[in-house]
Amino acid sequence: MSQSVQYRVTGMDCASCAAKIEKAVRSAGVNSPRISTASQILTLDVVPSDERLAAVELAVSDVGYHLDRLRPESSESSEKSDEVKPHLTARYRRALWIVIFLNVGYGAIEMIGGFLAGSQALKADALDFVGDGLITLLGVLAIGWSLLWRARSALIQGLFLGALGFGVLGNTIWRVFAQQPVVAELMGMLALVALAVNVGAALVLIPHRAGDANVRAVWLFSRNDAIGNAAVVVAAVLVALTGTSWPDLIVAFAIAALFLQSSWVIVRDARRDISEVRS
């Protein structure tokens, strides 16, 4: 019977994070890693005594994430706690709650601002904030949960985020045929504030991420979000210069498509996790 080793991943927030971790694992000489964005579990098809595991843990740490090995458990106990010793210290947990508040709180503000400004790009960017916040929230709350319950929660979250994404996408398509004026000034101002919020979240996390590589990972993650914020700012400028809403709609389509792709990854991973636990 084949054996495997599982790790609880701390710091993974999106599908791109999972890709980075998978690449790091392969660089340590372990092929075919399975990482779930939904449950934040890394599974390796190796024996627990495999000498490459130390290299895996170091490689993943070097790209900015932390691994806690899960204790093996029988199928009868699979709905109980994974008995992992959480990496989250009290101060780090408080920092994550601040980040959750910043993301979800500003996501709600930006969504309202999107309606007031008539900007679909702001609404799509708001979904990105809410999605990041909810993923981090699940990571904080589900530390002691079993794989099955984490997967179930992630599935609900992924479906909810997907529904929101399709709502914004559908509304954007409707706006193509029923174009309405966009308040470029309000749109640009909210996008600039969004950029500041992303930088603020990074500053909150950096003191709790040891090592240059970990700090760099926070900045890279924030940079990726900031690209979306910058795209909305550019769209606002183009709306003001051209007097049309097309720049806003184009950016909205791009951000919504990326958001839906992330939601699909969460749902896919959650369904796979549920299937594996029940098999």
Automatic annotation (TrEMBL):
Parts of the chain that traverse the membrane: 95-117, 129-148, 155-174, 186-206, 226-243, 249-267
Keyword annotations: Ion transport, Membrane, Transmembrane, Transmembrane helix, Transport, Zinc, Zinc transport
A GO term from the CC aspect: plasma membrane
Subcellular location: Membrane
Domain of life, source organism: Bacteria
The keyword Transcription belongs to this UniProt entry's keyword annotation: no
Molecular functions (GO terms): metal ion binding; zinc ion transmembrane transporter activity
PROSITE patterns documented for this protein: HMA_2 (PS50846)
Main location group: membrane
Ranges where the HMA domain occurs: 3-68
Membrane topology: Multi-pass membrane protein
CDD domains in UniProt: HMA
Record has S-adenosyl-L-methionine as a keyword: no
SUPFAM superfamilies documented for this protein: Cation efflux protein transmembrane domain-like, HMA, heavy metal-associated domain
A Pfam family: HMA
Protein name: Cation diffusion facilitator family transporter
Originating species: Shimia abyssi
Classification of source organism: Bacteria, Pseudomonadati, Pseudomonadota, Alphaproteobacteria, Rhodobacterales
